[in-house]
Write a structure and sequence with these properties.
Layout lengths: L2 H55 L11 H8 L11 E6 L4 E4 L1 H4 L2 H6 L4 H8 L4 E7 L2 E13 L6 E12 L1 H53 L14 H49 L6 H28 L11 E4 H16 L3 E6 L4 E4 L1 H17 L6 E9 L2 E8 L37 H11 L3 E7 L3 E9 L8
Parallel strand pairs: 7-9
Antiparallel strand pairs: 1-2, 1-5, 3-4, 4-5, 6-8, 9-10, 10-12, 11-12
Length: 490
């Protein structure tokens, strides 16, 4: 089942439940209103009878103990007022016997018999309880009110019960009207649900139209492998526009990643091909008889050893950069940067040659990180500075604190980097002009991964690396790492 159909069914289902609740509420309200109207009519009739009986009971010619109820009724003549109404009246004495009827009941003896509901109901009203109920008498459905008939005893001046008044009114017309109303609600509800389902389907189609366009566009991109296509952005600023823009941003990112992967594979293949080609050439030289020439054999083996070492370094660098998580495989411990920087400078002095390698430690700094990786980053930057600094130049390694950061500055007086190359020096396999290198003939020149590894290691330690350079004057690298300040202060 499609999402569009599920949403339409859910919309129609919720609408149907709301409509059903509304219909039930309306039916209940109308039913109560009609029944209350009938009850009010019965109450009014009871009030008229009670008022007439009270006026008759004040006649001093009648017995004041209220025992002669028929005389009271004859004196009041109240029952005759119900002749032309649809209210049926039955009067009971205190013994539960029916003693009088309204004229419209007297004309139908059978009805008079049927209206006698029994002494138990009458006695309940004699005790002072008003009763309302609906009952079927023969084929007639009636709403019944039973109230005690009271008077004031002129001797004791107390209120006493002389009997019970029973008023009944047929409600067939009311129930017929309620039935018609119920049918109208049901038919109207069905019509409304049909219209709502059609409207819901139309709204769902309209709402999903941009999503359909998006899906077709993305399918076209997948089938044609054309990552340059983009999904049309709707004009209305809503959630669909935001979704479309997000999908387009995702496509931009995917295109960038594919392009980076393609360039990475091309560059990696090129870098791997160079040492492999050199090794293959030396193997061919050995096959042509170089093994019988000690000098040529020694030279070929040295070349192969050098190229194999270069190949191993290149593969290790590629494996490091290919990790999915920046901190994968790192062991974080407390590292004393001053001690580590002194160790790096001590190892590099033998290969610095005529370049003056200086160390300047202004502060002690403790950081949390992988000591070997941080050392590798420092070695890469320092080696890069030494390679591009001519004889007689200077390379200075400085350690200082700046707030909660430890900053290592490696400054050289080398040939510098052009402003065109400066934004790309941390890209993989990027190498500036080889004329900057002190040893141009070295077959073990950099692969273009050294500074990319530096950036990778520094950012894995939540740090940052910057570079500033002036052509023919020198280059300054800055490595900033978060330092531990709780227990180790300057």
């Amino acid at each position: 089942m499609s999402l569009r159909l599920r949403l339409t069914l859910a919309y129609v289902g919720l609408f149907a439940m709301a409509l059903l609740a509304l219909d039930i509420g309306l039916y209940f309200v109308v039913n109560r209103a009609l029944i209350n109207s009938i009850d009010n009519e019965l109450d009014l009739g009871a009030q008229v009878l009670q008022q007439n009986f009270t006026e008759a009971s004040n006649n001093p010619s009648l017995r004041t103990d209220g025992s002669d109820l028929p005389a009271f009724l004859n004196q009041s003549a109240a029952l005759s007022s119900f002749t032309t109404t649809n209210l049926f009246v039955v009067v009971y004495d205190v013994n539960g016997r029916s003693i009088d009827y309204s004229p419209n009941v007297q004309r139908t003896p059978r009805l008079a018999t049927q209206l006698n509901l029994g002494r138990e109901i009458v006695f309940a009203s004699i005790e002072g309880r008003t009763q309302r109920f609906t009952t079927d008498i023969g084929e007639v459905r009636l709403r019944v009110l039973m109230v005690p008939l009271r008077y004031i005893n002129t001797i004791t001046q107390s209120e006493q019960t002389a009997g019970v008044i029973q008023l009944a009114r047929p409600i067939e017309e009311t129930e017929r009207a309620l039935t018609i109303f119920l049918y109208a609600l049901a038919f109207g509800g069905i019509v409304v649900l049909v219209v709502a389902s059609q409207g819901g389907a139309w709204l769902t189609r309209a709402a999903f139209r941009p999503i359909d366009v998006m899906a077709r566009t993305v399918q076209g991109i997948v089938s044609a492998a054309d990552l340059k296509r983009r999904v049309p952005v709707p004009d209305v600023q809503d959630e669909l526009q935001l979704l479309t823009m997000t999908v387009n941003d995702l496509l931009d990112r995917i295109e960038q990643l594919f392009e980076t992967q393609r360039r990475f594979l091309a560059d990696a293949s090129h870098e791997l091909r160079t040492p492999l080609a050199a090794m293959q050439g030396n193997i061919e030289i050995l096959n042509r008889g170089a093994a019988r020439d000690p000098e040529l054999l020694k030279e070929s083996l040295a070349d192969m050893q050098r190229e194999s070492a270069r190949l191993i370094r290149l593969v290790n660098d590629l494996l490091m950069l290919a990790r999915n998580e920046a901190a994968a495989g790192m062991r974080f411990v407390l590292v004393d940067l001053a001690e580590l920087l002194m160790e790096v400078v001590r190892e590099l002095r033998p290969i610095a040659g005529q370049v003056d390698l200086k160390l300047d430690i202004k502060n002690i700094a403790i950081v949390e990180g992988d000591r070997d990786r941080i050392k590798q980053a420092l070695l890469n930057v320092c080696m890069n500075a030494l390679q591009h600094t001519p004889a007689g130049g200077h390379v200075t390694c400085t350690l200082m604190n700046s707030g909660d950061r430890a900053v290592i500055i490696i400054e050289d007086t080398g040939s510098g980097i052009s402003s065109d190359d400066l934004p790309f020096i941390f890209d993989r396999f990027f190498r500036a002009d080889r004329s900057r290198t002190r040893d141009q003939s070295s077959t073990s020149s950099g692969s273009g991964l050294g500074l990319a590894i530096v950036k990778y290691i520094v950012e894995a330690h939540k740090g940052s690396v910057t570079v500033a350079s002036t052509l023919n004057e020198g280059t300054t690298f800055g490595i900033s790492l978060p330092r531990i300040t709780d227990s180790f202060e300057d």
